[in-house]
TrEMBL record:
GO molecular function, one term: sulfotransferase activity
The organism's place on the tree of life at top rank: Eukaryota
Family affiliation: Belongs to the sulfotransferase 1 family.
Protein name: Sulfotransferase
SUPFAM superfamilies the UniProt entry points to: P-loop containing nucleoside triphosphate hydrolases
Pfam families attached to this UniProt entry: Sulfotransfer_1
InterPro entries: P-loop_NTPase (IPR027417), Sulfotransferase_dom (IPR000863)
Organism ancestry: Eukaryota, Metazoa, Chordata, Craniata, Vertebrata
Length: 484
């Protein structure tokens, strides 16, 4: 093990030397919206790692930094060496001396993964990477993965001392400074949009939430006739609508407290995500285990939905909102959400919105495509504005569409519970640190604060060209909500 330990120390010492020559803002680089130490890896290494082939007998240890991976990695290496009877004496490594590699998968040079092919089985591989950034072969080739976790308070404390003691990482003047950084995912100013977004079928999506592999796997997803599907472009009120529908559905079903707890725990245990297109490729297999009725949200346009959505018997509720308020809400969301690229000005953002160069693509293309399915027998449309004007009436329409039966008192109770103010007050409890980002104002007409006269005219013309004269246009009531 002496040579293996020397390899480890050599890499760390080299990183210290490199770190000492760099300014604080040069120490980290961004890949898919996550920061990594420049002294240890690079974008080229991550790209080379995509071709890494795992073996079914690989032993993979995963864990967040400072959760004890070096300690448990040593234990695993000794266990494997003993089991395989490849250790000649207590000082030898499980791997042949001449072929030793730094144990962390993401640390090294671009040729590392070719050299790793020569390592004898079983290979012990460590990583701090999240599943979305691991090579696909790790899951495809059935390698076994041991996930190491540690309580967050001790992890934070250990990481604080580690960051301040190691020159390859930015240091912090105080614990308070570090704590803020640990608790908030601040964007690196150097992060490029290419790191934060990926393109699939010509449309951009957040790399932190999804992947091309997930969208490919989605094609085979099978809906159930009892599924409740909610669709809408980002920032049209889908989080608000979801809460409304969940309250209506659970009230109609009359779940016991124990049943509600079981349903909530099932979603947590199966690692469900708030949108159909979010998560890893395996999420759709896990969704099969969810009890009916499943409430499923999506921002996707129809052509990217699995065939079972429109061809099956599940009912679809489409939420629409006037484009000017949608654009303003999405602008603030973009600039406050760490996993999305920000814009230097409203004018810069407005151009991107009008050209469809945002996550989930063009608002206008989204509506035009849904308009082709508006007469679908199992589809209903409702607008954000009508829900704001009369939430009880809107909820009654929703309940009737899905076949839910509630009393007047129950509708009134849900209206109070799901009012924007009530949801904003509970947003930290329900949505964590994203609460303030998701629930900002919730008003109709705030577009007047940002739109210039020229932008007003451009939006009016675009809406008329794309949506004018359609059933969707009538529902949106553009002349009422979007004219000065």
């Amino acid at each position: 093990m002496e040579k293996s330990r020397k390899k480890f120390i050599d890499v760390i010492d080299k990183a210290i030397v490199v770190g000492n020559t760099m300014d604080r803002d040069e120490l980290l680089f961004s890949y898919k919206g996550i920061l990594y130490p420049v002294a240890l890896c690079s974008l080229e290494v991550f790209r080379a790692m995509e071709s890494f082939e795992a073996r079914s007998d690989d032993v993979i240890l995963a864990g967040y930094p400072k959760s004890g991976t070096n300690w448990v990695g040593q234990i695993l290496s000794d266990l494997v060496a003993t089991f395989e009877k490849k250790r000649l004496d207590e000082e030898k490594s499980v791997n042949h001396e001449e072929l030793e590699e730094f144990p962390y998968l993401e640390i090294g040079d671009t040729e590392k993964y070719e050299r790793m092919k020569k390592l004898t089985s079983r290979r012990v591989i460590l990583t701090h990477l999240a599943p979305g950034n691991l090579p696909k072969s790790i899951f495809k080739n059935k390698a076994k993965i041991l996930l190491l976790i540690r309580n967050p308070k001790d992890v934070a404390t250990s990481f604080f001392h580690f960051s301040n003691a190691w020159s390859a990482l930015p240091s912090y003047e105080t614990w308070d400074d570090f704590f803020v950084a640990f608790m908030t995912e601040k964007k690196n100013e150097k992060t490029s949009p290419e790191d934060l977004l990926f393109s699939y079928d010509g449309i951009l999506y957040p790399a932190a939430f999804s992947s091309p592999e997930t969208l490919e796997a989605l094609k085979s997803f099978e809906t159930r006739s009892s599924d409740v599907i909610l669709a809408g472009y980002p920032k049209t009120g889908t989080n608000w609508l979801e809460q409304m529908v969940r309250e209506i559905e659970s009230t109609d079903a009359k779940y016991t407290e124990e049943e509600m707890k079981e349903r909530i725990n099932a979603e947590k245990e199966l690692q469900m995500f708030p949108r159909l297109e979010f998560g890893d490729p395996g999420v759709f297999e896990r969704m099969k285990k969810l009890p009916s009725r499943r409430i499923i949200l999506t921002h996707l346009s129809p052509h990217l939905l699995p065939p079972s959505v429109l061809q099956g018997k599940a009912k679809i509720l489409l939420l629409v909102r006037n484009p000017k308020d949608t654009a303003v809400s999405y602008y603030h969301f973009y600039n406050n959400m760490p996993v999305l690229p920000s814009f230097a000005s409203w004018d810069e953002y407005f151009t991107a919105f009008m050209n469809g160069k945002l996550a989930w693509g063009s608002y206008f293309d989204h509506l035009m495509e849904w308009n082709r399915h508006i007469d679908h027998e199992r589809m209903m449309m409702i607008s954000y504005e009508e829900l704001k004007e009369n939430p009880v009436l809107g909820m009654k329409k929703i309940a009737a569409f899905f076949g839910f039966s509630l009393s007047e008192e129950e509708f009134s109770r849900i209206a109070r519970k799901t009012s924007f103010q009530a949801m904003k007050e509970k947003s930290k409890e329900t949505h964590g640190k994203f609460g303030d980002i998701l629930f900002r104002k919730g008003v109709v007409g705030s577009w007047r604060d940002l739109f210039s006269e020229v932008q007003n005219e451009e939006m009016d013309q675009k809406f008329e060209e794309c949506i004018g004269g359609t059933i969707l246009a009538t529902k949106i009531k553009y002349d009422i909500y979007c004219k000065t």
